[in-house]
Every structure is written in C-alpha cells, then in structure tokens.
Amino acid sequence: MPLQAGATGGGVRLLLRAEGVALLLLSMAAYARFGGEWSFFALTFLLPDLALLAYLAGPRAGAVVYNAAHSLVVPAVLLALGLATDLAPVFDLALVWAAHIGLDRALGFGLKYARGFAYTHLGQLGPVDPW
Q: Residue 13: which pLDDT band, with cuts at 50, 70 and 90?
C-alpha cells in the first residue's frame, strides 16, 4: 500500500507508535505515583478531543486546532508550570493530557494535514483514498 505524501511508514511508523505507548504508560505511572485522583483522570482524559469540533469550520481550521491540542507543547508547559508553582491540578492535567496524546499515537492517530481528518503524519486513517 503506497504512503500518502508526508506520512511515515515501516519501522519509523512502528517506532512512533511505540513511543505513544511509552508516553501513555509513563504519564499514567507518574500520575499514580504523584497521587492523582483517578476520577479527575477519567473526567479529563477525552478533553483534547473537543478540538475535533473545529472541523466544523473546515479541514484547515480543524487540523490547526486538532494539532494544537494533540501536540506535547501545551502539556509540557503545564507540567513545568505545575512543578514550578506546586499546583497539583495543573500538574495532573498535564499528565492526563500527555497520556491522551500517547494513546492517540499508539492507536495511529497522528497529527493532521489540512487535506482532511484522515490524513496524518502516521498514515491515512481508514480506507486508502485512490485519488
């Protein structure tokens, strides 16, 4: 099966998905170790997926907002802020957010291209578009 332009394949794709598993497990282990409430974890785990609503404005806007919510930049800043200020909820949110991103990557949901939701850096989701 041919790869879409900009997508990874083979061993690189497998490695990126394995990194997702590692991020998920590490984030959850840190969350448990630092005493995060699992009810908070459950309530906030899917919050980054609210970014999908941006696809109502079109694929370009959807991709920009989705990628912003599924990049590790914001969770890393929140993690640093939570550590620096000793604000447990901020720290906990950062770990939950990172875990969400890890699961998405492990499942093959990569960062999106403006062409549409199915076009990601980890390959196309669903059936391959013949066009």
A: confident
